[in-house]
Amino acid sequence: MKLLVLGGTKNLGRHVVEAAVASGHEVTLFNRGLTNPGLFPSVRRLVGERAAPDALASGEWDGVIDMSGFLVRDVGLSASVLRDRCGHYTYMSSIAVYASKTTPGMTESAPLLPWPTGAPEDHFTMDLYGPSKVRCESLLTATFGERMAGVRSGFVVGPYNPDFGNWGWALGRGETLECAARPDQPVQYIDARDLAAFLLRLTAEGLSGPYNAVGPTRTMTDLADAWRSVVPNAGSVDWEPSEDRFHLPRDGSNDGTFQLDNTRALTAGLRLRSDEDAARDYIAWIREGNTPPDPPH
């Protein structure tokens, strides 16, 4: 497959490109060339800005995976340029698209956030993050129709990615885990490698529509116990840290966001490794001398 990746050199995007190259796909990267420019020296690169995607004006691809689509205007520009020159378009969206933050068991058909009246399409603020992802999904669906998939994910954990505040770092160094979320709080996450494989699968098979690409719901206590189980004599969990290391409101106002129904993604081929395997690999990555990046937002 001739694959175009928009972004591809940071966090999850690295895993997408690594998996694509390992699978024998012919990969082209389009990004600004500023983040980890030395990665993937054998891969073709197109350097440019999303706001002026002139570098995409020639060439054809079997599939596109969009890892860097935040601004509605920019996503619209790339969609317009690529509409007739790619087979399938897979967009990295977010679980932040849902209108309700408290309803458990939401499927992909649950109501989505509206676009605020008068909001700018060329400027990013955190309060527009969810509405922007909704608007981008809608724009891409209108452009590509059945050739478009929107992948909605939340916490993504794994090498090159943040974890739950400091857990991998703490477990790798024999320190106390810190968690500002309440112990019985529901949480869903996915290992970056599993998400990367799913993005590639959707693109290669031309599957369409939205997907909740998340793992099963568990409580923060259960998740902490699973991660701690892979390290002998693991430290305890500090549920009242002086600094909020894991940003989830304790009042239940966001609990539904982490109790999504992932049946459609599982049916489409999403495969999830265990909490213990994810933790073990992450801790090994820390012990190899790597430092987790800061959360993206």
Description of the molecule:
The chain is an alpha/beta fold. It has two domains: 2-155 and 191-212, Rossmann fold (3-Layer(aba) Sandwich); 157-189 and 215-258 and 273-287, UDP-galactose 4-epimerase, domain 1 (Alpha-Beta Complex). It is 29% helix and 17% strand. It contains eight helices and 13 strands. It has a seven-stranded parallel beta sheet with strand order 3-2-1-4-5-6-11, sandwiched between helices. Helix 1 crosses helix 5 (192-205) and helix 6 (220-228) crosses helix 8. The longest helix is centred in the middle third of the chain and has 16 residues, at 129-144. The two termini are 33 Å apart. The model has no long low-confidence stretch (mean pLDDT 94). It comes from Kribbella kalugense.
Topology, please?
Elements: E1 2-6, H1 12-22, E2 26-31, E3 44-47, E4 61-66, H2 72-82, E5 86-92, H3 129-144, E6 148-152, E7 155-157, H4 167-173, E8 177-178, E9 186-187, E10 189-191, H5 192-205, E11 209-212, E12 218-219, H6 220-228, E13 237-238, H7 263-267, H8 275-287
Parallel strand pairs: 1-2, 1-4, 2-3, 4-5, 5-6, 6-11, 7-10, 8-13
Antiparallel strand pairs: 9-12
Can you tell me the overall shape?
A: globular
* Biggest sheet overview: 7 strands, parallel
Query: What top-tier CATH class of the largest domain fits best?
Result: Alpha Beta
**Secondary-structure arrangement, i.e. CATH architecture of the largest domain:** 3-Layer(aba) Sandwich
**Using only CA atoms, what is the Rg?**
19 Å
State the CATH superfamily name of the largest domain: NAD(P)-binding Rossmann-like Domain
N-to-C SSE series? EHEEEHEHEEHEEEHEEHEHH
User: Ends: how far apart?
Assistant: 33 Å
The tally of beta strands, per DSSP, is 13
- Low-pLDDT residue intervals, each spanning 5 or more residues: none
The number of helical segments is 8
